[in-house]
Amino acid sequence: MAIYLYIVRHGEAEPVLADDASRELTNHGRHEAQKTAIWLKKQVTEFDLVLASPFVRAQQTKDEIAEHINFKEQLVSEAIIPSGDAAAVADEILARIDNLDQVDADILCVSHMPLVSYLIGELAGYTPIMATAGVAKIKVDLTKWRGQLETLIAPEQML
Q1: Fewer CB within 10 Å: N-end or C-end of the chain?
Q2: ∠ at Cα 92 (97, 136), nearest 5°?
Q3: What is the pLDDT of residues 71-130, one digit of tens each?
Q4: Helix/strand/coil (H, E, C) string of the chain?
């Protein structure tokens, strides 16, 4: 049984505006998201479930990934925002994985700092600073409702 959760921080975004949720990716951020998508395609052929923030920059990052990898199911979660509660988001993701009723699954979560770091901490016990369009690959153990961080990579490290 192998269940993997890929946590992705959105690509570089425009400077802070009055409405943070409306910030878009910069050209560099789109390039970062494309590199991330190409790297992810080397890891998986399809995502069983994709959870993404409703914020524009996260949706744009998810869309760049979708151009390279098929998504079986995708959901927008109002909880997966920069100020989201990492423990609650971890519980939501683990419950959704548990409900997939599959022994093998690849799950993608596209979100923001600081939530992505805290989420990794909740699941794997290590709280890294994530680069824009960075990826954390976590092997999930549903018997313990925890995970093990296997990979933490930034776009400039992706070949």
Answers
A1: C
A2: 70
A3: 999 999 999 999 999 999 999 999 998 888 788 999 999 999 999 999 999 999 999 999
A4: CEEEEEEEECCCECCCCCCHHHCCECHHHHHHHHHHHHHHHHHCCEECEEEECCCHHHHHHHHHHHCCCEECCEEECCCCCCCCCHHHHHHHHHHHHHHHCCCEEEEEEEECCCHHHHHHHHHHCCCCCCCCCCEEEEEEECCCCEEEEEEEECHHHCC
C-alpha–C-alpha distance, residues 143 and 44, integer Å: 23
pLDDT, tens digit, for every residue of 139-157? 999 888 899 999 999 999 9
pLDDT at residue number 31: 97
Peptide bond preceding 155: is omega within 30 degrees of 0, i.e. cis? no
Which residue carries 């789109």 as its tokens? 30
